[in-house]
Write a structure and sequence with these properties.
Layout (H helix, E strand, L loop, with lengths): L2 H5 L9 E5 L3 H13 L4 E5 L2 H10 L4 E5 L8 H10 L8 E6 L4 H8 L5 E4 L4 H26 L3 H14 L4 H14 L3 H12 L5 H13 L3 H14 L4 H13 L3 H14 L4 H13 L3 H15 L7 H15 L5 H20 L4 H17 L3 H10 L1 H6 L5 H13 L3 H14 L4 H12 L4 H19 L3 H14 L4 H17 L5 H11 L11 H16 L1
Parallel strand pairs: 1-2, 1-3, 3-4, 4-5
Helix pairs in contact: 3-4, 6-7, 7-8, 8-9, 8-10, 9-10, 10-11, 10-12, 11-12, 12-13, 13-14, 14-15, 15-16, 16-17, 16-18, 17-18, 18-19, 18-21, 21-22, 21-23, 22-23, 24-25, 25-26, 26-27, 26-28, 27-28
Length: 548
C-alpha cells in the first residue's frame, strides 16, 4: 500500500482497533510495526491468553491476531473458545490464529471454534496486507448484517441478507449460509431447507448438508436426519460438526451405543475438543461402558485446566467412574484406579474451594473408594468428617442426597440409606427425574460390578423366556435376585415366568405360592413407581389363577 493510500480518508485498516496476542515481545513489535505501516492507529498487545481475555472484557477490538502457542497457561484455542463462550467477540470482529505449528491436532482443535483465518509464521508485510485486507473488506461489506445478529434482531438481519444478495455477489455463499441459519433460528424451517436444497443442487457443500440435517432434526424427522448425517461424515470425514449432530440424532432415536461410536470416532479425529469429550463420557456412562467413560472424563479434566469449560462436575464424574471401576478390585490396576480417584478429588477440592457442598460430594465418593478397597476404617472416618454438614443441611441437593444414600448402601447401612431416599423423594416429589433415580438406587443398591452382573443375568433371563426356555429363564432371574433381591422388575419378571410354567402344567401349585412370595416382596411399592401398574396386573392375574 503506498503513502497516498495510507493517508487516504477511506483507509480500511486505519480506524479499526487491533489486539496482538503473543508471548514473544519481538513478534509483538514486528506485528505492531507492520500494522503501523498500514496506517493503523489503535493497537493493543497482550503477552498471555488470560491478559488477552481481560483486555477483551473491558475493551472492544475489531481484529484479534492471536498466536496459538502462548507458553504456560491458555493457548490460542482457549482464548478463542472463551471469547466465543462469553460473547466478548462480536460477529463483526475478526479473529486470526497465528501459528508456526501445523499439526493435525492443533488445526482440528482450533477449527472447532471457527477462527476467521490462519496465518502461518513467518509472516511478512505483503502476506499480512493481503490476508487482512480481504477480511477487512468483507467485514465492512457485511457489517450491518452482523450488527443486527449481535443485537439478536433476526428479522432485520434476514431482510438485510435478502437485500445484499443481488448487490454483493462476491459474498453470495456467506449470505446464503447466514440467511439459512437465521431462518432456522426463527423457526422458519421451510425457507431454511429451500436454501440448503438450492445450494446442494449446484454444489456439494458440507455446511449445506449439515444445515439440512439440522432442519430434519428440528422437525423430529430423526430417521431422515441420521441418513443425511451419516452420508455427510462418510463423504467429509473431517467435518466435526457432522459427527456431533449425528450423535444427537441417534440419541433422539434411543441408539446410545451408535451415538457413542460416532462420538468416539470424532474424538479420535479431533481429541482437543473438551465439550465433545464430555459428551462422549456422558453417553458412555449411560451405556455402562465405564472404561470408555473414564478415559473421556480424564481427557475432559486434562483439557479443562485452562478452559472456560472447566467445572468441578468433570472431576466428580471422573472420581465416581474410577471409584466404580476400582470397587472390589484388589489387583494392581484396581489399586491404581482407586488412588487416581482420590488424587482427582483432592485436586478438585483445591481448585474449586469456594463451594462447601462440593467438599461433601467429594468426600462421599472418597468414602466409597476406601470401602471398595476394603479400607472400612478409612471409609467410616471420611464419612464422619462430613457428618455435621450432612445432618444439619436438610436442603441437600438431589445429587448430593443420592450420593449420600449410595455411600450408605456401600457401607451396608441399608436403613439409613432408605431413610435418606425417603426424605429426598418427599422433597422432590414433583421431579420425575429424581424419583426415577431413587427407584433405580432402591432396586440396585450395590456396586457397579454387581449391577452389571444382575443386568446381564436379567438380559439372559429375558432372552431365555422369549425363546421358550422357561427353566433357564427362571434360573437366570433367581440368580440375579440373589444379587439385588429388592429389584422390582426382576421380581415381576420371575413372577411372569412362574405363571407361564403353571399355565403349561397346572399341577405345579407350588409355582403360585412362589408368585405370591415374590409379589409380597413388593408390598410397599409406591403408586408413582414405573412398575406399579404391572404389579397390579400380575396380582390380579395371580388371584384368577388361584381361584381356577
Amino acid at each position: 500500500m503506498n503513502q497516498t493510500a495510507n493517508s487516504a480518508h477511506d483507509n480500511p485498516f486505519r480506524k479499526l482497533r487491533y489486539l496482538i496476542v503473543d508471548d514473544f515481545e519481538s513478534f509483538r513489535l514486528s506485528m505492531r510495526q507492520m500494522l503501523r505501516s498500514f496506517g493503523v492507529e489503535h493497537i493493543d498487545v497482550a503477552n498471555t491468553g488470560t491478559a488477552a481475555i481481560q483486555r477483551c472484557t473491558y475493551e472492544h477490538f475489531d481484529v484479534v491476531l492471536c498466536d496459538y502457542n502462548l507458553g504456560d497457561g491458555k493457548n490460542g484455542q482457549h482464548v478463542l473458545e472463551e471469547l466465543r463462550h462469553k460473547k466478548l467477540l462480536k460477529r463483526a470482529s475478526l479473529f486470526l490464529m497465528v501459528t508456526a505449528e501445523t499439526s493435525r491436532e492443533m488445526v482440528m482443535g482450533a477449527r472447532e471454534y471457527q477462527p476467521d483465518a490462519y496465518l502461518t509464521k513467518p509472516i511478512n508485510r505483503a502476506m499480512l496486507e493481503k490476508r487482512l485486507g480481504s477480511l477487512v473488506e468483507q467485514r465492512k461489506a457485511l457489517l450491518p448484517i452482523n450488527r443486527a445478529i449481535d443485537l439478536e434482531n433476526y428479522p432485520e438481519a434476514i431482510s438485510l441478507c435478502l437485500q445484499a444478495l443481488p448487490k454483493q455477489p462476491r459474498y453470495k455463499t456467506w449470505l446464503l449460509k447466514t440467511l439459512a441459519d437465521l431462518y432456522h433460528r426463527v423457526g422458519d424451517f421451510s425457507h431454511a431447507q429451500k436454501i440448503y436444497d438450492d445450494v446442494l443442487s449446484q454444489r456439494d457443500l458440507s455446511w449445506a448438508r449439515l444445515g439440512r440435517g439440522k432442519v430434519l432434526l428440528a422437525q423430529k424427522h430423526y430417521d431422515d436426519a441420521v441418513t443425511e448425517l451419516k452420508s455427510l461424515v462418510e463423504d467429509h470425514p473431517d467435518f466435526m460438526e457432522g459427527y456431533d449432530l449425528l450423535a444427537a440424532a441417534l440419541e433422539h432415536q434411543g441408539k446410545l451405543a451408535q451415538a457413542q461410536q460416532v462420538l468416539g470416532k470424532a474424538a479420535e479425529l479431533s481429541p482437543n475438543a473438551l465439550l465433545r469429550q464430555r459428551h462422549l463420557a456422558s453417553v458412555a456412562e449411560a451405556n455402562q461402558d465405564l472404561e470408555t467413560a473414564s478415559g473421556a472424563w480424564k481427557r475432559t479434566v486434562q483439557l479443562g485446566v485452562h478452559s472456560i469449560h472447566d467445572t468441578a462436575d468433570n472431576y466428580l464424574a471422573l472420581g465416581r467412574t474410577l471409584s466404580d471401576l476400582s470397587d472390589g478390585d484388589q489387583t494392581e490396576a484396581g489399586k491404581q484406579r482407586a488412588e487416581e480417584a482420590l488424587n482427582t478429588l483432592s485436586r478438585m477440592e483445591r481448585r474449586f474451594d469456594d463451594d462447601p457442598e462440593l467438599v461433601v460430594r467429594s468426600r462421599l465418593v472418597q468414602t466409597r473408594v476406601h470401602a471398595g478397597q476394603g479400607r472400612v476404617r478409612d471409609a467410616e472416618r471420611c464419612l464422619q468428617d462430613i457428618s455435621a454438614e450432612l445432618e444439619s443441611n436438610e436442603g441437600l441437593s438431589a445429587d448430593t442426597g443420592l450420593d449420600y444414600a449410595r455411600t450408605l448402601f456401600r457401607l451396608d447401612r441399608q436403613t439409613d440409606a432408605k431413610a435418606v431416599l425417603a426424605q429426598l423423594a418427599q422433597a422432590h416429589e414433583d421431579d420425575p427425574d429424581v424419583l426415577q433415580q431413587i427407584e433405580t438406587l432402591l432396586d440396585e443398591p450395590v456396586s457397579f460390578r454387581q449391577r452389571m452382573q444382575a443386568r446381564n443375568l436379567n438380559r439372559a433371563g429375558i432372552k431365555a423366556f422369549e425363546d421358550g426356555q422357561l427353566e433357564e429363564a427362571a434360573s437366570a432371574f433367581r440368580e440375579a435376585l440373589n444379587v439385588v433381591p429388592n429389584h422390582t422388575a426382576l421380581n415381576l419378571n420371575l413372577v411372569q415366568v412362574r405363571m407361564k410354567q403353571y399355565h403349561n402344567d397346572t399341577s405345579r401349585r407350588a409355582l403360585l405360592a412362589d408368585c405370591r412370595r415374590l409379589l409380597d416382596n413388593l408390598a410397599g411399592l409406591p403408586e408413582q413407581h414405573r412398575q406399579y401398574r404391572r404389579l397390579l396386573a400380575l396380582k390380579k392375574k395371580l388371584e384368577s389363577l388361584q381361584h381356577d
